[in-house]
């Protein structure tokens, strides 16, 4: 359920202004355009009667509703509410994201100092950090211990 909160006179005036603009933009302007086109072309050429603004709005409504009925696609805009997650479901999703089966592997890849690149013609291509090999092995052992504890 969507809730719109209007606070005080300023909020009420803003809501009325927004409603008037939407009404003018989607009803009055197309109605005025339909009235103008009708009066400009059909009254001079085929001696049709002259329309006023109200009749132009009705003509616009007839055209818009006919298009919606005859169109196979229907309305281009649909209003749906997505089901909301409860706090428990959200916590479960977050926990599974934190300790998912790939998380230790991703953590190890991110923290590793040595990234192996695809080999070409039996060459060893890799990028490494300037850490010493002793620091690497100690750090790898502690990371492996942490990963085994998580499992």
Structural class: mainly alpha
Spell out the helices and strands N to C.
HHHHEEH
Could you give the order of strands across the largest sheet?
1-2
Mean pLDDT: 77
- Counted by DSSP, the helix tally is 5
Gyration radius, to the nearest Å?
Answer: 34 Å
**Bulk shape:** elongated
Sheet with most strands: 2 strands, antiparallel
- Per DSSP E runs of 2 or more residues, the count of β-strands stands at 2
Helix content: 55-70%
Integer count of domains: 2
Strand content: under 5%
The N- to C-terminal Cα distance equals 41 Å
Question: Explain this structure to me?
Answer:
- With 151 residues, the protein is mainly α.
- It has 2 domains: 8-70, no CATH class; 87-150, no CATH class.
- The chain is built from 5 helices and 2 strands, in the order ααααββα.
- Helix 1 (8-46) packs across helix 2 (53-70).
- The longest helix has 39 residues, at 8-46.
- The protein is elongated.
- The mean pLDDT is 77.
Question: Can you describe this structure in just a few lines?
Answer:
The protein is mostly helical and 151 residues long.
List keywords for this structure.
single chain; 151 residues; mainly alpha; 2 domains; two-stranded antiparallel sheet; 5 helices
List the helices and strands and how they pair.
Layout: H1 8-46, H2 53-70, H3 87-98, H4 103-111, E1 114-116, E2 126-128, H5 133-150
Antiparallel strand pairs: 1-2
Helix pairs in contact: 1-2
